[in-house]
Amino acid sequence: MPRATARVCAQPGCPQIVRDNNRCPQHQRERDAYQRATVPTKATYTYAEQKRRKATVDAWREEHGDWCPGYEVPAYPSDRLTADHLTPVGLGGAQDGPLGVLCISCNARKGSRVQRGTDTR
Ligand SMILES: [Zn+2]
Ligand SMILES: [Zn+2]
C-alpha cells in the first residue's frame, strides 16, 4: 500500500505534520466551518438531502422527460437537470424546503441573480 506523503498543515504558520489531509484536524475543522458559512447551498448537503434532490430530478424526468422548465427562458430539452431550491437557501430558504428542477445553466443563471439580490420568486 502506498504511504501518503507527510507534509505540514496548509494553514500558514501551523507546524503540524499531516498525511491524509492538507490540514491538521483542527484547521480542517475550521476550514469546513468556514465553507459551511460561506457556501451554504453546496457544503452542507447531507446524504439524505442529496438523495432527496436526486429523487426530485428522477420524478421530474419520469413525468416530463429531459426538459428544463427554463429560468427566464421558455422550457427546452436538456438532460443536464439539477434540483433547485424554490426559495434559495442563501436567501433564508430551508435546506429541506421545496425543490424545483432546472438545468445546470438555468440554475447557474438563477444563482447569479440571487447573489445580486434581484430574484423575487
Ligand atoms: Zn494546522
Ligand atoms: Zn434550463
Tally of DSSP β-strands = 6
Helix and strand succession? EEHHHEEEEH
Poorly predicted regions = none
Sheet/helix structural class: alpha+beta
Global morphology:
elongated
Radius of gyration, taken over Cα atoms and rounded to an integer in Å: 19 Å
Question: What is the count of distinct domains?
Answer: 2
Amino-to-carboxy terminus distance = 53 Å
Mean pLDDT, rounded to whole units? Answer: 85
Measured as a percent range, the helix fraction is 25-40%
Helix segment tally:
4
Strand order of the largest sheet: 1-2
Ligand inventory reads: zinc ion
The biggest beta sheet reads: 2 strands, antiparallel
Strand content: 5-15%
Explain what this protein looks like in three dimensions.
The radius of gyration is 19 Å and the shape is elongated. The protein has two domains: 32 residues, no CATH class; 71 residues. Strand 3 and strand 4 form a beta hairpin. The protein has 121 residues and is α+β, with helices and mostly antiparallel strands. It starts with 6 loop residues before the first strand and ends in a 6-residue tail after the last helix. One zinc ion binds next to helix 1.
